Amino acid sequence: MDTSEVEELLSPTKEFLLTYFLPEKCYNYFFVNLNFLHVPCWKIVLSKTVGVWIILGTVMAQLPQLWKVLRARSASGISWWSVLLQVYAITGPVVYCITNNFPLEAWSERLFMFMQGLAMGFLIQHYSGNTLKGIVFLLVYGGVMLLLTSPLVPEHVIPAMQASSMLAVVASRVIQAGTNYYHGNTGQLSALSVFLVFTGSLALIFTSLQETGDWSSVSTVTHVVAACLSCLLLTQIHSCVSIGSYMGIGLLNLFNFVINKTFEYIVVQQGRSTNRMPFESL
Question: Mind telling me which residue stretches traverse the membrane in this protein (predicted)?
Answer without folding.
Answer: 79-99, 111-128, 134-153, 189-206, 218-237, 243-263
